[in-house]
Write a structure and sequence with these properties.
The chain is α+β, with helices and mostly antiparallel strands. The protein is built from 1 helix and 3 strands, in the order βββα. It is elongated, with a radius of gyration of 16 Å.
Length: 67
Amino acid sequence: MEHKGYKIEGDGTFGYKRIKVIGKGSVHMSLRGAYTTPTEAVNAIDRFLGEKEETTNASKKPTSRGK
């Protein structure tokens, strides 16, 4: 299963799911680990991308220098 540039696949042992990056690069630390269902993995990806977007948007806001 693919979701927003990530691949969710079985870990090959106990039926847990793991997240991998499609293409080059590595999975962010917050997405590493095992998930019991594909839905949990999808939610983790969405949460990570949402937080990443908020951080990016916050750094682009103009700041006042008190002039």
